[in-house]
Amino acid sequence: MGSDNKALTLAEISIHNNSKDCWVIINAKAYDVTNFLADHPGGDEVLLAAAGKDASEEFEDAGHGSAARLMLDEFYAGEMDPSITETRSKYVPPKQLREDEEKSSGLLAKLLLILVPLAILGLGSAGLHLFSLLPST
């Protein structure tokens, strides 16, 4: 996996970018986190979005504690080649709904919860009224 101490290039790491083969770069070290996808507390989508890319900044920003840092050793795959000056692929976090989108969709759902039963009740009343106006035979 990374036991031959060969320095890895970004091109070599970037091919490990799916749920069956998922590597991330954190602080110039590559980690094979494929077997950790299902157990990651933030969900597998966080790791998959960072697959094959440098997620150092996001790892630090997430506030990972010492336990998470110790776990990295278990997934170590190799070092990034420090002499390579290639541009690292940047991690792009998964798209999340903006707060105003969440509020508007929540408001719409609440509105529908009120309007749909009222519409059904109104149509039922109108039908009953029309039925009562029919001449009896």
TrEMBL record:
Residues 5-81 form the Cytochrome b5 heme-binding domain. InterPro entries: Cyt_B5-like_heme/steroid-bd, Cyt_B5-like_heme/steroid_sf, Cyt_B5_heme-BS, Cytochrome_b5. One of its GO terms (cellular component) is endoplasmic reticulum membrane. Coiled coil: none annotated. Gene3D superfamilies: Cytochrome b5-like heme/steroid binding domain. The chain crosses the membrane at residues 107-131. It is found in: Endoplasmic reticulum membrane; Microsome membrane. It comes from the Eukaryota. Keywords: Endoplasmic reticulum, Heme, Iron, Membrane, Metal-binding, Microsome, Transmembrane, Transmembrane helix. It is a single-pass membrane protein. One of its GO terms (molecular function) is metal ion binding. Its main location: endoplasmic reticulum. Belongs to the cytochrome b5 family. This is Cytochrome b5 heme-binding domain-containing protein. It comes from Escallonia herrerae. The lineage of its organism: Eukaryota, Viridiplantae, Streptophyta, Embryophyta, Tracheophyta.
